Amino acid sequence: MTRMNKAPDVAVYIGRFQIFHNAQLALLRRALAAAPECVVVLGSAFQARTPRNPFTWEERAEMIRIALPEADRQRLKFLPVRDHYNPAQWGAAVKKGVARLHSGQPSVVLVGHLKDATSSYLRDFPGWALDDAGRRGDIHASALRDAYFGAARDGSLEAALAALVGQAPASTLQFLRAWASLPPYAVLAQEWENLRREKALWSGSPYPPVFVTVDAVVQCARQVLLIRRGRSPGKGLFAVPGGFIEPRETVWQSALRELAEETGLRLLDSDVEAAFKAVRVFDHPDRSQRGRVITHAHWFDLGPRRPPELTAGDDASEARWLPIDQLAGMEDQFHDDHFHILDFFFGLTADAAEGSAA
């Protein structure tokens, strides 16, 4: 990090802000006091709604705006950034986005708190000064989300919001109260409950579980084979065919079995071997809502032939071929990091900006 000899032109504050709370508000105020302009970088910007990422980046920007007086709102700019699951690529996207918002080469101070491994990214911006502001209260957005979605079980929303007084701005609580009347709240509350029950099954394990899965990325005539998930987590979202590895299978055997079970696609061994192009491991700790899930994505190219017929089964409610050139506009319709998997193989976002700032 760089030491600054003069006041910075821009303060940058990075977060997911799911849900925006008082500790984050304190850091935001510090950023606003540090420079005449403040860029708030909104992570996980284009994902589908999930219990971990319930709010769109526009909703989070509004949640932040309404917590501030009008004069401070005028000094804010919001930069939505997708999860690249690659620190260098993600950091480059942040720096490029900030530069796009300001002409010339402004001096930048990055305001944040180096609390643990999840905030180590603050050290990845050479040329920017770092203002490590320290802890601003023992408040965790995950606990706030648990209280918010857990309230749907017994209709105790008002009691849950009352318990959050002192942890989140009054404007955030008002936002949450209004948002709970929208259709996504009930859907995500059910998804949250299903995930809670699943994780409870592993609560007695002496070590945090690490799951191994497989995926099959199959392309044919510039189309890719996708399913719609038929159950939680991610019910109704697009996904690459795949699933958990069986105890007596190799990852190769599991990938072919899951492909057949979910899509009905069965190929001769010789055709499979000819179509196989590569395998890539995706192992980011935050890639799955279930917890730590490491997947092996197998890439197959069936060539320019007519795409085979499909029959959805097992965990899939639908199996279909989608044109690859349409995927870039569908990021918010994919389960977990499956858009990122497709992006890796097909370069869906290679020429795309991170999004329009607000």
UniProtKB/TrEMBL annotation:
Gene Ontology MF terms: hydrolase activity; nucleotidyltransferase activity
What keywords does the record list, in alphabetical order? Hydrolase, Nucleotidyltransferase, Transferase
Q: Which residues form a coiled coil?
A: none
Q: Which residues form the Nudix hydrolase domain?
A: 206-345
* Pfam families tied to this protein: CTP_transf_like, NUDIX
Name it.
Bifunctional NMN adenylyltransferase/nudix hydrolase
Q: Which organism is it from?
A: Variovorax paradoxus
InterPro entries tied to this protein: Cyt_trans-like (IPR004821), NUDIX_hydrolase-like_dom_sf (IPR015797), NUDIX_hydrolase_dom (IPR000086), Rossmann-like_a/b/a_fold (IPR014729)
Which PANTHER family does the record cross-reference, listed alphabetically? Answer: BIFUNCTIONAL NMN ADENYLYLTRANSFERASE_NUDIX HYDROLASE, PHOSPHOPANTETHEINE ADENYLYLTRANSFERASE
What PROSITE patterns does the record tag this protein with? NUDIX
Superkingdom of this protein's organism? Bacteria
